[in-house]
Each structure stands twice: as C-alpha cells, then as structure tokens.
Write a structure and sequence with these properties.
35 helices, alpha/beta, eight-stranded mixed beta sheet, 42% helix
Length: 1003
Amino acid sequence: MSAQARVTAVLGPTNTGKTHYAIDRMLGYRSGVIGLPLRLLAREVYDKIVAARGPSVVALVTGEERIVPPRTQYWVCTVEAMPEGMGCDFLAIDEIQLCADPERGHVFTDRLLRARGQKETLFLGAETMRGVIAELVPGASFLKRERMSQLGYTGSRKISRMPARSAVVGFSVDNIYAMAELIRRQKGGAAVVMGALSPRTRNAQVELYQNGDVDYLVATDAIGMGLNLDVKHVAFSSLTKFDGRGMRMLAPNELAQIAGRAGRGMSDGTFGVTGEASPLDEEVIEAITEHRFTPIRKLQWRNHKLNFGGITSLIDSLERPPAHERLLRARDADDILALKNMASDAEVSARASDPASVRLLWDVCRIPDFRGISHSEHASLLMRIFGFLHESGQVPDDWLATQVKRIDRVDGDIDALSKRLAFIRTWTYVAQRKDWLRDESHWRGETRGVEDRLSDALHARLTQRFVDRRTSVLLRRLKQKEALLAEVSETGEVTVEGEFVGRLEGFRFRQDKEASGQEAKTLRQASLQALVPHFNLRADRFYNAPDTEIDFTEQGGLMWGDQAVGKLAKGDEPLKPQIVAFVDDEAGPDVAQKVQRRLQHFIDRKIAALFEPLLNLGRDEALSGLARGFAFRLVEALGILPRGEVADDVKALDQEARGALRKHGVRFGQYTIFQPLLLKPAPTRLRLVLWSLARDLQEFPEAPPPGLVTVVAQKSLPQGYYAMAGYRAAGERAIRIDMLERLADMLRPEDSRAGFEAKADMLSITGMTLEQFADLMQGLGYKAEKGERAKVKPEAATPEAAKADTTEAESEKPDTEQAEEGSTDPVAEAGAETDPVAATETPVSDADAAKPEAEVAQAEPAAEAPAEAEAPAETSDAIADATSVPAEEPEAETFFTFTWGGRAARQNRDRGNRRNDGKPQARGQKTGGDKSAGQGGDRQGGDKASGDRGRDNRSKGKPRKPGGKPQGGNKAKVFESAPPKKKDRIDPDNPFAAALMGLKDKS
C-alpha cells in the first residue's frame, strides 16, 4: 500500500447512502474490490455496476457463484470470498459492525485488520464501530453520514391494519410462513425474502413487491443488510432470534438496522410491532429513532497465520488466543468443528501426513454446511471429498453426477425445494473451486442450471401459497357489485372465482377465509348459492347409503364417514332417542327432513339389532302379572338391574314366572339381574349413550375397554354408571357382573361365619392380587382379617397319597364344575334368588348362632388328631435328620381370612361405590372339603400345608345332610318347598350347556 493510501471509516445509520458512496468511489479508480455481507446484496451491487460499466469488466464472486470475465476491473464479492493480494486501487468492506458477530465476525475482523486498497480503503458501517476502529486501525479517518429521512415508532398493529408497502420481519421459517399466510388471507398476498433463498428466487420475489403485485413483504433480518426496497413501514413479528446456540432478544442496534429499511431516500418511514411481539420499551424506541447505541468494544478474531505442519498443529494455530485486548477469540465455527471431527478418523489422519495434504484438508473443511443436518454427517461428506482429492486430485465426474441428479427434481412443497436448494449449494461451491473438477466450466453450468430450476420452482410455490392474485380481483368485484362465480368440487371444496373459500362438511358449510364484515358475508352468500343443488344431491346419496357408512360416537354424535351429520337427543323412552340433524338453513327443509329420517332409521335399526333380547322381552305377550311388570322394569333399566333395587319383586316371583323370564335369557344372579348377551362391547357402548341421554348428562362417560374383568372404580363418575357399563363397584375396583356371579358361586359353599381364605380360582377369575381381592371382598360386604404365617413348602406326595388325591379330586369334580358354571337346581337357585335382605344380611338364625361355633370347637381336636397319630410313624432316620440339620427360619406369607360383615353389608350398600345388593348364602363345608388347613387350623396357630390334606381333614366343619346342605341355622326353611338338588344338573345359562348335555347323554 502506497504511503498516500487513505483509510476511511464511513459510519452512520441506515439510509445514509454509504453503499452508494462506496460504489461511486470505486468506479473512480481503475480497479476495485468491494466486500458485502450477503450474496443477495452482492448480486444487487453487481447488477448496478454492470448497468454502469458493462458485464465485461465486472466480476461476481460468492461461495456458490463465480462470474469472472477475462478483463475484470471491479470485483463484487461476499466478504468470505474476497480475493487476497490482488493489489486493487480501491477496497471497501460494507457492514463492518459485523466484526462483533459470533458466527462470522472473525472474517470481518480479519478484513478490517489486513485488507487494504493501494490508494483508498473504505469501511462502511454503524457509528458504534468508531472507537474500536480508531484503536485498531491507526491513521484511519472518519466520515459521518446522517440519515436522509426521519424514522418514527407507531406501536403495535394487527396485520389487518397494516399499511400498504409494509415489511413484516420474523426470525424463523415457521414465523415467516405464518405471517405470509395471514397476510395472504387478509391482504391478498405477500412476497417472501429470506437469506437462504437463491438470488434468483429472491429477485423474483422482490420483483413481485416492487412492481406492485403485492403490497406486503415478509422477510428475515436479511433485508437489514443494505437491500434497497420501497418500504414505508417495518413491523417486527418477533423480538427474539436463534443465534446458533440459543434464543436471545435482539439488541437495540440490531432492531435499528432492520427498522432503518423503512423510508428510502427523502421519504420518512415508520416501524412498530405486530403479531405476538410485545411493544418496545421507551428506551429502545428513543435509541432507534435518535441512533444512539452502546459502542462495540470487542471484536471476534481468529488467527490467520496457520501452521500446516500437521492436523494437530493446524488446530493449535486456529485456537491461538489474540494479543490485543479488543479482540476476542471466536468460538469454533463449522470449519473448525469439521476439522476436529475428521481429525479423529484414522484414514484422514493417515492421508494428512504432509503440509500440502493438511492444507488440502483445511480447504475441504471450509466447504460451508449449507445442509445444516448435523456436524457428523457434514464431516462424513467432507471426508469423502477429501479422499477423492487426495487420491486423484479431483472429484470423480460420475460420483458428482449422481449427487447432482438426486437433487435435480422440481416436485414437492416449499420445504422440499428449499432443502434441495441448500444441497445444490454444496456442489455449486465445489464447482467454483479451482482444479477440484476435471471440467470446471461444465459442472459450474450444471450446478447453476439445477439451482435455477429449483429457484424457479420455489418462486412458483411461494407465489402459489402466499400470493393471492385473485383476492384483489375478488375485492374489486365486490366493490363493483359484480356477480361472483362460485363452484363446488366433488370432494366438497367450495371456490369463489377459482379461490378456495371453504369446505362442505356433511350438510354444513365451513368457511375457510378469515374475512370480515361485508366481504365475509358476500363470500358466504355466494358459496351457499352454489351449494343449494349440491345439498340435494348429497342428501339423496346419504339417504341411500348403507348403515355401514353411518355410526354413532360415545358422545352421542352421528357420523357419515368422517363427517358429523347429526346427534342423538333425549326421547320419551330410553330406547327411543330423537335425532337432531346438522343441516344449514340454506339447504332447505326438504334436505333437513331427509337427513333426519335417514338417521332415525339408522339408530332404530341399531337399537333393534343390539338390544334384540331386551326388546323381545318387552314385547312378549305371554308374560303376565308380576313377570310382565318385572320385564317392564328390566327394559326400562336397559337390561341390567342391581338385585338390591328389586329385592321385593324378585322375592315375589314364583318359579313359573322366573322360568318365563329365563326363556328370554334373563339371569337371576346373586348381585345383578341381567341378560348376558347385553354385556357385549357393542350393546354396552350404545347402552351408555342411551343412559346418558336419558339422564341429561352434559358429558357422556365412555365404556370401559372391552375384555377387562376389573377396572379402577372412579368416584367422580355419575351414579349408576358401573351398572350400565356391566360392572359393579366394590372397594377400589369394579368387577364385571358376569364374573362377579361366577365368584358368588365359588363363595356360596364357603363357611362365611367361621371364616375362609381365597382360593386360586377366585383370584384367577378376577385377575387380582390377594390384596386387591381383599379390598374387593370388603366392598362386597365381607370382613377381611390380615395375618402372617410361616410359608410351608409343598412336599412330594407318595404314590399312595397321589392316588388317593386323584380319587378324591375325581369324586369332587362334578361339584366343582357345577360351582363354576352356576348352580341351577331349585335348591341352589332358591339360595341364590332369596330376598337380598335375608340372603345377604342374615346368614344364620339368632337361635342357632352359637351352634356352628360349638361344632367347630368339637371338630378342632379331630382335625389335630391325625397329625398326632402320624408322628410315631416317622422313622428314626427322619428324626435324626431333623435334629442334625440346623433349623432354617421359615419364610412368612400373608393371608386373609374372610367372614361375613353383617351390618357392614347394609352400610356398604348405602355408600354408592361400595354398595352391596346381595350376599352369599352361608353354608357349611362340602363333604369333599376343598379348603386348606390354613382356613381353619391356621387361625389357631396350625401350619399344615395344602399337600398334607387327607380324608381326616374333611371332618372339620359342620355335619352335613345327605344332600350336602349344612345342618344348623342357615334359614334353609325358605327353600324346603323346592325339589331335591340334583347333583349333576347342568346350568341352562351356561354357554356350554348344549355340549355338556351331549356328553351326559353319551355317558
């Protein structure tokens, strides 16, 4: 640089003409270089200089574009792509305040410290750089430029009130698209400008705005870097941005840089906020309007004197700290991160063994990560390119052709095209590097062609999505009162003048436009005019549609496919609901009546199919007297009646009446009277809807998931819900009523006064743990006493004992099967169908209350006798083994003893969730005795294992009559009129009754 070379810092706010001043100064010299922060701005300056001097002497060099004529005099570049050591007469750096930028600041700082023109150097930027430039660039002079127009703050405005020629600024793609979509709907359209767009796409979008096709521009902070646009107002839709590491608030000087785009030349401009952005503070507003900001004190810096002796040496030189206090070592950029990632690869380390290879590796690492996928994936691509260049000095044409061909597609949406544009920028950058390809000019043309095609397609998609040319025409025709052309597609999409304005959902029109006032009213009128004939055609098709296309929801809605066409309403009877059709008034009464009739036919047939047993019961003329009245109550209750609510009615029914009801599938359970077929998922789902309608519930409770035996009992559900769902709440859970009746059959033969323990079958059918089962039993009116005892390991049975057990099991099998299937002989049936008060609250008479205790007391010595008798039979060897082996502490197990709760049952019945409408008939033990010793003897401290049960164990309990009924006060007199119990009688309610009858006949 000659001694007369001048260094000048031209500082000031936006709209001061700094860039224009630099261009004029450069054109006054024979040669010059100007570095700009964005390739978009570089393209704009390049076009201006070409217009002034012609394309033969002007070069454009960016990371992805290189236009260098043979007689180049003036170089327009991005700051990163500026050539070094050219010795041009003039050099200028625009937006020099970016020296403080965390991402790219080190590049601008390097140009500030080292880039100079032979005759003149200009640094263009904000006034905040004055102090640091004066300190770091001795001898620099300063030229202050004043803004040519005033800038005012207008506060917060809605998009609908945004003035024409406004720019809405956002800092994320989602925010940009959302604002552009909103402006399209309310204002007719907007152009979109983002830094990630290609220059071709950006210029096409700017042209839409500049030529007046649209009056609004939605952009990122890219417009703050010198782009000259005809903007009168700038509105911030957000005040935060992602800076590469996290979200942060924009500083006042950053806001001012963007707001300054408003008001070009001598025209004043305004700025404000919109959308979700909060109003600016007074201090920030004053700083922006008066251009007073905190001076920049630290610049980002990275060492330019690199050591290519090895990868480690290169990394060390890049991480060298600065020597000046005004300089701050920049955080690792993408190129350093890629270098460190590749350095860990053994193959790369082996290849980069000399300075030339290390320099090549660093050049490859400087390929920008345009794709932005991940550091590791970007490093993987760079390793592939480095391998090609290190082996043959060039990237293979066939491999590069495959990569480019994969991207050369113009289908897809905006996001897909934007991603492909980012991908092609990588190969455009590679094509610009000298000597990396065999035919550089060919691949520069190929990659540029792909980028142009993608750019044009992206511009078309952006225009199609965010620019509504027809809206302007529509608004003009509305004002001129011209007739609007409205159409309805086969899929129900409604268009006015070719523009989508809404959708036909069922028989209601849903307007999509967020129009307001007279515009919205006119659009709706035009749409509905077109819909009138379509309503009739659709109603005819719906009336002839099969029932399989229609369904009801658990909230009472009626659906035709995925469209709501009506809802159920309360009728005079639960099984006769009414219909409310969803039909617009403009469709006419004929359409509404046709839709309503079709829905009524559907729900009537659905009820007839799912509740056929119940409807047959209600229509049976053969029923008379009490049976007919009971059938009416069952129909009114939708097929499920808790027995406690109809105890007197059940008691009054004779056997003939019960038999007549059983013919319709009515089961008289101990807790519930119901029709088993109505417990299936489909009838249950519909029953809950009809029950909710009858009770005028605002929110309908949903049916429990099908197939579950128990569910958690929720106290917040409406009273009566569990009965309608086919469950009974007991304790913390609710059990399905059919499984509850099976459990009742198992509990009936147990000694509920002396106490009994839960058997494996009881836990199996409920699917509960022992603790959960104890809570269930308490909910059913039993008392549960918890205890612990030593766990006895089962001993191997001798062949004689196993044979005896087998014989005993076979002898007991008919009784067990009968208990599982439900006893149906008159005696057992009477036991299950007795008055709930008598059957659940008085298991024994007061006069005989002490008798079972005496009998049990007499039986206890007999139960212990066999154990004492067996002791002498043990061999001396066994005794010796027992004394020689140290005794192990027995493992403890928890057990519950259940006894009938008496008055607790009545209290539980009155408490809703723990209500008990019936209880097991107290009985003595069966002659076969299937209770373990723990149920009797363990409560007295006994410890007999279930495997030690013998015939003597069956002596415990009450003496039985030949029929198996316990002798004692069980108030069995009420059942004496019933015929004797048939031991092997098959339950007609059992779903396997027919098969069992066939087996019985064969035997």
